[in-house]
Amino acid sequence: MALADILPRTRxxxxxxxxxxxxxxxxxxxxxxxxxxxxxxxxxxxxTRMDLAARLxxxxxxxxxxGTDELGRDVLSRLIQSVRVSLVxxxxxxxxxxxxGTTLGFLAAKARGWVEHAVVMLADFQAAxxxxxxxxxxxxxxxxxxxxxxxxMGFYGWERYARIARGLAISAGAQGYAAAVVQLGASPxxxxxxxxxxxxxxxxxxxxxxxxxxxxxxxxxLSFLGLGVQPPETSLGNMVGLGRDYLTTxxxxxxxxxVVITLTTLSISLAGDWLRDRxxxxxx
Amino acid sequence: MSRPPLLEARDLVRIYRSRRGLTGAVTEVRAVDEVSLKLxxxxxxxxxxxxxxxxxxxxxxxxGLDPAQGGTVLFxxxxxxxxxxxxxxxxxxxxxxxxxxxxxxxxxxxxxxxQIREPLDIHRIGTPEERPARTAxxxxxxxxxxxxxxxxxHELSGGQRQRVVxxxxxxxxxxxxxxxxxxxxxxxxxxxxxxxLLRDLQGQKGLGMVFISHDLKVxxxxxxxxxxxxxxxxxxxxxxxxxxxxxxxPYTQALVSSIPVPGRPLDARILLQGEPPNPAAxxxxxxxxxxxxxxxxxxxxRVPALRVPEPGRAVACHxxxxxxxxxxx
Lengths: 284, 329
Fold this sequence. Notes:
The complex is a heterodimer of chains A (284) and B (329).
Chain A: H1 3-13, H2 20-37, H3 39-42, H4 75-111, H5 113-128, H6 131-142, H7 146-153, H8 158-174, H9 177-183, H10 188-224, H11 236-243, H12 252-279
Chain B: E1 7-19, E2 26-39, E3 44-48, H1 55-62, E4 70-75, E5 78-79, H2 86-91, E6 95-98, H3 102-105, H4 112-122, H5 131-141, H6 158-170, E7 176-180, H7 188-205, E8 208-213, H8 216-222, E9 225-230, E10 233-239, H9 240-245, H10 250-257, H11 297-301, E11 314-315
Parallel strand pairs in B: 3-8, 3-9, 6-7, 7-8
Antiparallel strand pairs in B: 1-2, 1-4, 4-5, 9-10, 10-11
């Protein structure tokens, strides 16, 4: 059947106004979330189980549908576990940095004065510091653990949210709807949470869709350097890093997690754009 | 009268400081300079003046939105609490503002009904179950249809948006309404509707209203008393019909003569000479003297005080305030 025939049909199955690309992104993200949640059930083998008779088996080998790595570990099993670990880190850290940065930005816009100076200075400091070096130092001192990794990644990119939130809140407060709501007698919490936050959310969401893939890659980088997720535990970046040695002879070890990273970040970006438009009643 | 006026301002001063460049000297702009006024309950005070005359700043100060560097604002005999304090916030239920640009004064992500309802939620007026009915009656009162409540601000016309802003301002049944150029962003055909709406609502609810505008026609239509501002000072104040019939200050005379009257040739206008005033470089003496056709030596050196030539009127002019008969224009 030609693609032209299939497309209108699938379109009819979708809710009205949902583009196919967004539907696919949402589907992929849902699949990833299910994968992360049910990793223990979906995994065909434990991630450390070695099948030494079938080392470096190519994909589509029976019992090892995505092949095996150099130790004969099932790539599919490791991939499913990696999705869980990486998603926890990336989602956790993205949300953490968005909440932290936005809160500081709003705080700066509300308090002005020395509080604002302090926040802006911290943001400049963060932006000027190579984050990888900071992360390496922290991980080298405290050792790597999942909580520390999420917390550390949560500091990645917060200065962007802080700057955006501060700038938008100040401009909203100087004139327009925020000043009008203040004049109505609303408490600062109401002004910021009910009025300013929804109005600046679209910009923040776009910023989140940019930070998310960066955090995935940052985690990959740290894992590759041996300071991120520690073997035998596995993550997408970890898999890419370890698979690099076999790039020419067994590319599937690296390609499988790389494809997952690409598709997930692309889906996040598409779904984020769509969500931003949906949240804005003036575009609908 | 023993009862204090609804609103009283005493010697309000507001100075803006601005610096040109990093090392430039700080220039002071006295946006509002020793302004005193009184507003009784149910009365409408029009404040007119050119842009830059400080009338909007004055309006914000009357509501406590801008702090005064000198002087006090008394609301029902009590000094206004500081901006942002819980007491100040609670007082918002009694005093409200109508903004110049309704589209920017409304939150574009909330429906119109949600925004009209907001003051009721903030000040916990009525039970949550009663509020939709109260919102609907407010919408009817300002001439909006009930089914427009689900719309977003950008889906309404300019006049309808301003009606939403007015409905929101009236939601708590305030005693004082400050309207800052409420119709200048609207089409002329819509202006009349909104002005009539404001006048009707003011009559029904006995609102005290401060109406700030540069449009003399609108002010004449609406105001009981008029205060004319020039470079941060009130130069003339009095009952609206007297101000428009026989203005005393030369500036007011020029303003009044600029209102087109059907059947009268335009030659009778007084054309003001010179540059529009720059608030940062305020002329010495009477600020109006460089443009004043009647300026004398005294005007260049001494600031004229507000004098009362007859009860209910005040004029700040060395030349005309003392005169018993109106000066021929």
